[in-house]
Structure formats: C-alpha cells, structure tokens
Design brief:
Elements: H1 4-11, H2 14-23
Length: about 80
C-alpha cells in the first residue's frame, strides 16, 4: 500500500516533489496501489518508485523519469464510447 507521506508530497506538485526527492536521495517512494488516475505527473522524477498496481489511467506521464521503477504489471485499458443512434 502506498505511503501517505509520499502521496501527499506527490499532490503538492512537480516542484515540491523534485525538492523533496533531492533532500531525500535514498528514499524510494512507495506509490503501490495508489489511485493516480487523471493526475498530472508531467516531468515528475519517479525513479526507483514502487508503482506496482497503481491506477495510472488517464495520467499525464510525459517526460517522467522512471529509471529503476518497480512496475509489477502494466495494464493498458482502453475505454470505447459507443453512440447508438
């Protein structure tokens, strides 16, 4: 289960997250099982983070650093909308 401290830091935005990561270089963020759907993670340093079973549906993952990241399973879900006339 994700660390509440790590989730709180993530929600403060990329600037605060980067500052915290620089201050805690040996900390490996635990975001396992976290609900991160539709979250703007653009440019976040998620290196060495445990994100197993995290919900990333709709999350902006552009330019993230995921070096050494632990992803147990990556599942891609596609939502299809059907318009019935």
């Amino acid at each position: 289960m994700a660390s509440q401290q790590h989730l709180d830091m993530l929600k403060q935005g990329a600037v605060e997250w980067k500052k915290w990561r620089l201050e805690q270089p040996k900390e490996h963020p635990d975001l396992s099982d976290a609900d991160l759907h539709d979250m703007d993670l653009h440019g976040f340093d998620l290196s060495e983070a445990n994100m197993s079973n995290a919900n990333l549906i709709g999350a902006d993952l552009h330019e993230i650093n995921c070096k050494g990241q632990f992803l147990r399973v990556l599942v891609v879900v596609v939502q299809i909308s059907v318009l019935l006339i």
